[in-house]
Amino acid sequence: MRSGEALELGDRYMNRQLGRIVRTLGFDRDWRHGEGAHLIDAAGERYLDLLCGYGVFAVGRNHPAVIEALELTLREHTPSLPQLGVTALPGVLAEQLVARAPARIEAMIAANSGTESVEAAIKLARATTGRPRIAHAEHAFHGLTLGSLSLNGNAEFRDGFGPLLSDCTPVPFGDLEALRSELERGDVAAFVVEPVQGKGVNLPPDGFLEGAQAACRATDTLFVCDEVQTGIGRTGRFFALEHWGLDPDMICVAKALSGGFVPIGGVLISRQVRDSVFDAMERGVRHGSTFGGGDLAAAAALATLQVMDDEGLVERSARLGERLLELTRPLVERYDIVAEVRGLGLMWAIELGAPSRGSRRVVWNVVERSQPGLAAQLITVPLFKRHRIFCQVAGHGMNVVKALPALVIEEAEIERFAAALDDVLARAARVPRALAGLTAELALGSVRARMR
Questions:
Q1: Which of 297, 291, 314, 305 is nearest to 261 (CA)?
Q2: In the chain, N or C: fewer CB atoms in 10 Å?
Q3: Domain 3-59+312-451: which topology?
Q4: 443-450: long-range contacts (C-beta < 8 A, 24 or more apart)?
Q5: In the structure, what pLDDT confidence band is assigned to residue 401 with cuts at 50, 70 and 90?
Q6: Could you tell me the pLDDT band of residue 181, with boundaries at 50, 70 and 90?
Q7: pLDDT at 230 over 60
Q8: Is the Cβ–Cβ distance between 301 and 258 less than 8 Å?
């Protein structure tokens, strides 16, 4: 009854600045439905959703099999969350995730989100090793609560929330010697790393992750893979770590695990971690979460895993990811503002750079000095308005546009996206005119936002 008031309610009672961003970009649609790889507005227009709820809708929006599992669980009146007791559904989920994980993993600690999973990994690493420091990669994104934010390499998220945890040490992503130097000091509890960095879709250099794991083993440091975004089929393997044959001590999972219906997270852990942290009966509840391991979340996750298997979505992610790269890599040669196209499975990004010469380069540099990352909106805004394709800039101040399609996306939609991208880039390549048009469009959107 009140769905048409969503933006107004958000402005008044939630985050007014988010409303200003949405209106400035022209993304202020009255969303009414979600179906598979699409969002549908009040006018019935279908938008290809490449934002995908930041990756949570891997099996598509409102998958009927997951809805059926949730309805069944509610009808059964299950004894969820007895707290001093356990129920079957979260145990079965843990069993299935452990079975899909590398050999070192033997158990799961339930959580409610990605950031809560990372927070748990920090605590468990310190308790297991007795060491204070956590090493992490620069430009990482591990979450926005205080502990995980301390491992976050993005100043726009960190500024104003300090002091953060003091014993968290960044190393350049891909710099194995810098990592070894930190680990050899002997006080690092864990190295926490995304196999592929979500902010920017940065892939690791050859040998880095394997070398990082070996360096951790050599220094009795725990090796932790944050698979919150890269896991559950996103990169064409169930866990991205499989691409490099990794066998970590902990794996953080969340996002896509429940099909986008119920907040969920978890840390998959080795026997060493479990036995070190929960080493006596009186220490059996030293870490937990009130809603972690609820029956609804577990039921949704189990249904999601079944959908992944029944529909072959991991393999589909690998195949369609290769098709997307095949269609979009030629854009690097076709347009001199395209610096790189990269991805793994259905985790994809395109990075823009300054034109090679002339007045276009001068204009580009002037705009970038005044507002870094503005040029990326030359792609996102017209994709949305002209082609009804919804995607995002990969990070603040970055000229990188990112796509996280639902793994159920049709190949024809991948081809439509590539064609739309080609059209948008052809217009964006006329830099002075394109930037002038975008600036005028964003200014109009900003005026509309301020009038609210």
A1: 297
A2: N
A3: Aspartate Aminotransferase, domain 1 (3.90.1150)
A4: 445/23, 445/24, 445/25, 445/26, 446/20, 446/23, 446/24, 448/23, 448/24, 449/19, 449/20, 449/21, 449/23, 449/24, 450/20
A5: very high
A6: very high
A7: yes
A8: yes
- H helices of 256-330, in order, are 271-277, 295-310, 313-328
- pLDDT digit string (tens) for 332-387? 999 999 999 999 999 999 999 988 777 778 777 877 787 788 888 889 999 999 99
Which own/partner pairs from 40-48 qualify as long-range (CB within 8 Å, at least 24 positions apart)?
42/3, 42/4, 45/388, 46/388, 47/384, 47/388, 47/389, 47/390, 48/388, 48/389, 48/390, 48/405, 48/409, 48/413, 48/416, 48/417
Q: Which of 35, 33, 31, 43 is nearest to 7 (CA)?
A: 31
Six-digit token string for 10: 């958000």
The domain spans of the chain are 3-59+312-451, 64-310
How would residue 65 be classed by pLDDT, with cut points 50, 70 and 90? very high
Strand partners, 251: 225, 268
Contact of 147 with 165, CB cutoff 8 Å: yes
User: CA 117: distance to chain centroid?
Assistant: 14
- Which residue shows structure tokens 């004894």? 79
- 3-state secondary structure at position 108: strand
Give dist(CA 129, CA 28) in Å, integer: 49
Contacts of 419 (CB under 8 A, 6+ apart): none
- Mean pLDDT across the chain, nearest whole number? 93
| One fold for 3-59+312-451 and 64-310 | no
